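Deviations from the work plan: none for this task. Representative record:
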Amino acid sequence: VCIHRVRSCSSIRFIKSKYVCVFDKSALKFSHQQRLFRTSAVSCGQIVQFKLSDIGEGITEVTVKEWYIKEGDSVSQFDSICEVQSDKASVTITSRYDGIIRKLHYSIDDIAFVGKPLVDIEIDASKGVASEEDVVETPPMSHEEHTHQEIKGHKTLATPAVRRLAMENNIKLSEVVGTGKDNRILKEDILNYLAKQTGAILPPSPKGEIVPPQRKAEAVPAAPKDKARKIPVPVSRPIAFAGKDKTEPVTGFQKAMVKTMSAALKIPHFGYSDEIDLTQLVQLREELKPLAEIRGVRLSFMPFFIKAASLGLLQYPILNASLDENCQNVTYKASHNIGVAMDTEQGLIVPNVKNVQVCSVFDIAVELNRLQSLGSAGQLGTSDLTGGTFTLSNIGTIGGTYAKPVILPPEVAIGALGKIQVLPRFNSKGEVFKAQIMNVSWSADHRIIDGATMARFSNLWKSYLENPASMLLDLK
Amino acid sequence: MVLQSLKNGLWLSCVLRTPKACFWSAASGGLVIQSVSNDVYQNLAVEDWIHDHMDLEKQQVLFLWRNSPAVVIGRHQNPWQECNLRLLRQKNIKLARRRSGGGTVYHDLGNINLTFFTTRKKYERMENLKLVVKALKALRPQLDVHVTDRYDILLDRQYKISGTAAKLGRTSAYHHCTLLCNADKFVLSSVLKSPLKGLKSNATPSVPALVKNLFEEDPSLTSEMLLDAIAKEYAVQHQIDHHITLINPADETLLPGISDKTKELQTWEWVYGKTPKFSVSTCLNMVYKDSVFDVKVNMDVKHGRIEVCNIDLPEQWLPAGLYSELVKSLTGSKFCPNETTTLVTTLLRVCPQDDELHSRWSLLCENMIRLM
């Protein structure tokens, strides 16, 4: 559409007639076409120089600090164009016209002058749907209308819905045979084309609809899908969902995750899960919580889980080991630096508590408090985040019961703790009682850890937690 | 002086009906409002809200606010250049970027902020500052205060007690200024000094000035007295009653959309990401075992993210593969200690588990992070 207009810029009458011969009569119902015929002298892509208006206080020059648009962008009246600064005042310059930015007269940090041109705007009275990419943003229409789309010199007639369908499936309309009136391309034609491509037989039910349903806020009009050759009945079209996909580079935290998880993928994982009855531990923690508070420390369940894990690692040190790159050597780490997965605003981080083997439960609680406050403030140091040998992830605080945690290299094991639920269980007398149940899901590196080792470690850990008094016997 | 809380349903319906709020009091040439919050982001959001939504044709507004400790940089400034970010983080002092131009200021409860809202046409900074001086002189006639042509207010001809900045939009404008009553000068001077050397940028630099608190001149003065005096003078000049209306910046019904504005002001993209492009060219002084050596570092930072990164390490000090991994990871990531720490510690997971290597890596990375 745009190309036509520029080429036939010389006389409005010429454009008029050109459009009439191309469009179907129903095109005249287009609201934006009506605008085209109605406009006065300021049309036909006239370039207007938008001058920098008076700032006030007798200011004659400003520094351009930021452009909100670039050449080629389309702007509407009142859209922000740029930010300029003059003597402690920051000024937002907004556009006076609708149109397309054709030239920026200044670069960032240049001095701009009041009364001199700031940008050149090509006034465009109607915002026609000129490019293929604009399909999704077609204005709402109440009846079927036809637009012509110029692709490589071919004129193809297709409704916006059909064009959208084609675009979403990366189909060139020029390659589709239209079976409608005037070789118009119908939805059936697109579906047929796709069927030929994929060899699939497309089911007639709405479920088989190619257009992905989740992209649209409203349902795509449910035109009859059966293969009977009939022109689709014009349907009342709901407002098109004008959302666009957004692509961003993977940076920062996500980059870190990509690296870790790609390396973790190389580890053959096996899983092992169990159920822990924390009834006694819950009671114990209730008793100890006020004591810890007096000392200024918040006592959660984690210090107990961590200490019990360390006691377990003393018996099964292979779970606190590291396998070298070539799988030639296993290094049994002396320190139990137990990592605690933390969810922060930016993503997952895993600081670790150092030397748990020589820490009391209270020491661990203190250290956890410190790591948690640093973590939420985004101020963890490198030493807090390195040197871990074993990890526990308390995903249960967010929710869930079972998990399949991923081992964080260079470690060989990890445990994910589900949420504590109150469930009915049988006691030794066969009576039902309220039990505080938590599920643990372990993952381990099957190259050096076998199922039996994992199971025995888990059983030992479980016994310490189910009967906290037994921890006293083995505490170092 | 009357402090009036906003419980009037009349204005509420008025606010909700019209997109450009025909605000609280129906017929008067001016309105004085004071924030009940000391949160710098909430208060800056109120400024944004009034600028975007209020019709200032019939009614100009004076907004009074104070913040708990915060450093506020101008729209086009560079926080790395303007303040000691490490100290800010340690002391839990907030960092905010305002939408007006100008330089960096330190706020605490001993500093009061005044924002004069007018239409774009009626934007006039000198008048506003003269109003403030008049109010101060009315309160304490012996005070030697005057307005300079740089829009500062000086005490005793040499100490800066107020700095100014402004924002102009399409139809409305605001001019805001600080006023030092009883701020902590020690913290002020230590946080407004950047330890980062070798920073090259076109960001607006701040002009350091000698400051003094009004309290030091006259210990009987308090922030409340000053706020009241200025509000009174404004009322006189705008021929309105001396009322200060309290507003709560967290009230979404009163100020629809305010919580989004508040959130935006706190995003990393706004506070750090809006920094104009700059480069860092510095030397890390590394002490490793028995040797001491310098490592030249060059980085280009755009939108707060590292665009280009060069670290001049001695040959083979780190394996080549690891060095290029480090540079690749840093490129495109935020010039931010938290993000860099996460990245470098993660990289350690996937490289050979060698203690020597790990300690070299940690040394280098810790030095790099200290720059941020």
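The two ends of chain B are 48 Å apart (CA to CA).
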